[in-house]
Amino acid sequence: MNDKTDSSKGDKTNPDLPVAIVTGGAGGIGAACCRQLAESGFCIGIHYRSSQAAAEKVLSAIGGKGFLLAADLSDTDQVENMVQQIKNISNRVDVLVNNAGDSINGPIAAMKIGDFDAQRAALRGAWFLTKRILRLFMLRRSQGRIINISSVVGHTGNAGQVPYTMEKAAMDAMTKSLSKELSGRNILVNSVAPGFIETNMTGKLPEEVKKKISENIPLGRIGRAEEVAEVVGFLATKGTYITGSVIHVNGGMYGG
């Protein structure tokens, strides 16, 4: 087992402070979600796989109001260890944001089965973490929230991203089924499906490509991670009659 999964940074949490776990919280949309939820009064469990320095920067940016969790979510042993860390540190979860994921791209004719399996691991990791963390939700009598970050391409499709679009569509299907399964447990389950968002990945695109993308977005621009995080923050703190929904944050490029 990776030794990094045996350590966490951050103080013991105030037992009266709600806890939000954000997977893939070291950068991009995940980091924006960490900041938004910290501003909303949550103690944040910032999960990362390998980017410890980036995760530490996020923890510093939220004033140390949280703790770090290192794990490869495709490894069930590491997920088990991560859940045990959460129990040791806070023994509660009020919000889980399943944001972590990879994007393995290429034409289907050139892809190897290992590429598909690597993409599938992200979905498997979200499913297994949710399964293992549910008991901590059920310890709380207040309303819990699970928020899955999917993507507009899970609905529109995108050339060269067959496994990725399959994974994101499956995340939304999981949201709809799990919301029905957990409705009697006072746990709300929703998806947020971003469109093209300014992150490190899109930041590497040539300007002419970004211009072409923007021309196909009714609002005429690529979105910001904070605009996705605002919706996550709403679902985490309000939206008490919303469950099983997919909320699109895409500048109008897809209506849902």
What percent strand?
Answer: 15-25%
Write down how many β-strands occur, each being a DSSP E stretch of 2 or more residues: 9
Q: Quickly count the domains.
A: 1
Give the integer mean of the pLDDT values.
91
- As a whole number of angstroms, the C-alpha radius of gyration is 18 Å
**Proportion of helical residues:** 40-55%
What class would the helix/strand composition place it in?
Answer: alpha/beta
CATH class type: Alpha Beta
Characterize the biggest β-sheet: 7 strands, parallel
Please provide the ordered H/E string of secondary-structure elements: EHEHEHEHEHHEEHHEHE
Q: Tell me the span between the first and last alpha carbons.
A: 41 Å
Tell me the overall shape.
Answer: globular
Using the 3D structure, state the CATH architecture: 3-Layer(aba) Sandwich
CATH superfamily: NAD(P)-binding Rossmann-like Domain
> Could you give the order of strands across the largest sheet?
3-2-1-4-5-6-9
| Uncertain stretches | 1-8
CATH fold-level name: Rossmann fold
Please report the number of helical segments: 9
